[in-house]
Design goal:
Blueprint: E1 7-17, E2 31-44, H1 45-53, E3 57-59, E4 62-66, H2 89-103, H3 121-125, E5 142-148, H4 153-167, H5 174-181, E6 186-187, E7 208-216, E8 219-228
Parallel strand pairs: 2-6
Antiparallel strand pairs: 1-2, 2-4, 3-4, 5-7, 7-8
């Protein structure tokens, strides 16, 4: 397994206004956010994982480490072990409700309310995806796909709707969106599956930066910005 080398250019300490504690759609009046930044020419996924574990964050090809002691709004990493995650009763109800909406009012046997012991999260997450259930005849077509991070007008339009609705921000450009959520310094290498011939079509073949696309009846309704990384030791 050949892992690419990592090349960076340090920028050093930086102080800027804050995008979290200002009025909706605006930044803070004072320069109160303190970070140390670098420009990543290219990064291997193992190196990037080690940086994440040490509190680094990424915006496109720019990486920065927040100074938590001096900044007005400290950033804290939230980690979730997806394998061990146990959804709450309200979360299970939401999943069932969404599946019933997609499949139809009856919902089928796979979408009925289940107890803690019988609820299998992975099965329920994919219960309304026709790709996982070819014989399913749903009321709506729900599709989840993953693709390398790249710019499209479809993604940009969805991003603009999100920014306007959540952050009251109506001034985003295609180039800004691309720099923020599409450009990446990550240079992936092959994921060592046990057998590359038997890898399901919905899984990526290499580590790196991806967009997870959620479509309902052909319309893009959500997008996840995902970094497929090595398992942490």
């Amino acid at each position: 397994m050949d892992i690419p080398i990592s090349v960076i250019q340090p920028y050093g300490p930086n102080t800027s206004t804050c995008g979290y504690c200002g009025p909706p759609g605006q930044r803070s009046a004072k320069a109160s956010s303190h970070t140390f930044g670098i420009d990543a020419v290219q990064l291997s996924c193992p190196v990037y994982q080690k940086m994440i574990d040490r509190g680094w964050r990424r915006s496109g090809e720019y990486l920065y480490k927040p100074d938590l002691a001096r900044s007005c709004c400290p950033h804290y990493t939230i980690r979730l072990d997806a394998v061990d995650f146990k959804p709450s009763r309200s979360q299970r109800k939401i999943i069932h409700k969404f599946n019933r909406f997609v499949i139809g009012e009856g919902g089928g046997d796979n979408t009925k309310a289940q107890s803690d012991t019988s609820f299998v999260l992975l099965d329920q997450i994919h219960a309304s995806e026709k790709a996982f259930h070819p014989s399913l005849q749903p009321k709506h077509l729900f599709e989840v796909t993953i693709e390398p991070s790249s710019f499209t007008v479809e993604k940009f339009n969805l991003f603009n709707k999100y920014q306007a609705a959540v952050h009251n921000d109506h001034d985003k450009s295609p180039s800004g969106f691309s720099r923020f959520l599409c450009e990446t310094p990550l240079k992936g290498h092959a994921i060592p599956y046990f057998s590359i011939d038997n890898v399901p079509s919905h899984l990526p073949r290499i580590y790196g930066s991806y967009h997870q696309m959620y479509r309902l009846d052909g319309v893009l309704v959500a997008m996840g910005v995902v970094s497929i990384m090595l398992l942490r030791g």
